[in-house]
Amino acid sequence: MSKKVLILSGDGIGPEILAEAIKVLNVLSVDFGLDIDLDNGLIGGAAIDAVGNPLPDETLDKAKEADAILLGAVGGPKWEPLDIANRPEKGLLKIRSELGLFANLRPALTAPQLVEASALKPEVVSGLDIMIVRELTGGIYFGQPRGIRELDNGEKEGFNTLVYSESEIRRIGHVAFKAAMKRDRRVCSIDKANVLEATELWREVMIDISKDYPEVELTHMYVDNAAMQLVRTPKQFDVMVTTNMFGDILSDLASMLTGSIGMLPSASLDKNGKGMYEPIHGSAPDIAGKNIANPLATILSVAMMLRYSLAEAEQANRVEKAVDVVLSAGYRTPDITSTGMKNVGTIEMGDAVVAALKG
Ligand code: IPM
Ligand code: MG
To answer: Ligand 1 within 6 A of 250 CB?
Structure first.
């Protein structure tokens, strides 16, 4: 039976980069026998404009039925005047939460061809291979109470709640340790246990879980130090496991070690391995519609989707190989270019990957 993939293009550069990912999926089905069915849904600002809701029920229903979801990005200045509860980002947070996609895997891998594109020295980043495991459906992003209230003196006060239950920490911890077992068997848990009780518990639970994985070395780092260490000696890390907000911040930071945020894919998985796949970058409204966005993070997200949710490891390898070939041939979108390279736009980059796939 064909596998169902739901495409949620979203806003900004979302539709452009998704168009290139779809070209890749089409080649896999026409030329390499991948059996999938693509459907589309509305999310984010596009959904607000069409039906007044950043996550329409129809989209959520389709997402629940799909075997995997491929997402572009959401948000943009057009919707910033809306209050937080009705913004495009709410659509993304709601789909993550409704589908129980608590495990966000954000690999930061420096392609050898892009070592020069990093802002850091080549020796610091070459061969970098980190897996950031970010908790995605809890923490301060979802904690109650939250809001903006007026105090007795008439002043306004904004408040959010950082809360983690033991079971939430436990399940993301297991994902991290299992990932480490397939890698270099090292987990660094990132917290702020010197200040925040929620992450004091985080640390305790990580220590407890580590007893189930005697072959994995567990270390702990405060998040401020982790940010510094990521820039100083990023290769010291194998798997990093952390909270929703710390993971949001550290994964953007880690992406620049690899040359460009336009290169990094991600997977958000539920307890059964069903997932949503998206580039870690945002909707980049400033460059939308200009044919300059890098589609490779999305194309590499397709590879993660094939591997993690569709059990198509061979097809995943095929996509990753094609990206490698294209980078070796010198194709570069503006975010990763350097002198002597073949400067191309979004569409040409997608075409180059398609050509590499076809061989
Ligand atoms: C990400 C993004 C989202 C997040 C935004 C768009 C809500 O920054 O996926 O990293 O904060 O999780
Ligand atoms: Mg982010």
So the answer is: no
Q: Is the distance from the beta carbon of residue 282 to the nearest atom of ligand 1 less than 6 Å?
A: yes
331 is catalytic: no
Domain spans, the chain = 1-104+265-359, 129-257
* Residue among 59, 245, 57 nearest 142 (CA): 245
Ligand 1 binding pocket mutation candidate from 11, 55, 89 (most atoms within 8 A of CB): 89
pLDDT digits (tens, 9 = 90+) for 79-130: 999 999 899 999 999 999 999 999 999 999 999 999 988 889 999 999 999 9
Give the ligand with the smallest distance to the CA of 283: 1
CB of 104 within 8 A of CB of 267?
A: yes
> Into which CATH architecture does domain 129-257 fall?
3-Layer(aba) Sandwich (3.40)
N-to-C CA span, the chain: 28
- CATH code of the region 1-104+265-359: 3.40.718.10
**How far, in Å, from the CA of 248 to the mean position of ligand 1?**
7
Q: Do domains 1-104+265-359 and 129-257 have the same CATH topology?
A: yes
Nearest atom in ligand 1 to the alpha carbon of residue 251 is: 10
**336, 10 in Cβ contact below 8 A?**
no
pLDDT of 21-45, one tens digit each? 999 999 999 999 999 999 999 999 9
CA 297 / ligand 1 centre spacing (Å): 15
Report pLDDT digits (tens) over 246-257.
999 999 999 999
- Residue 248 bears catalytic tag: yes
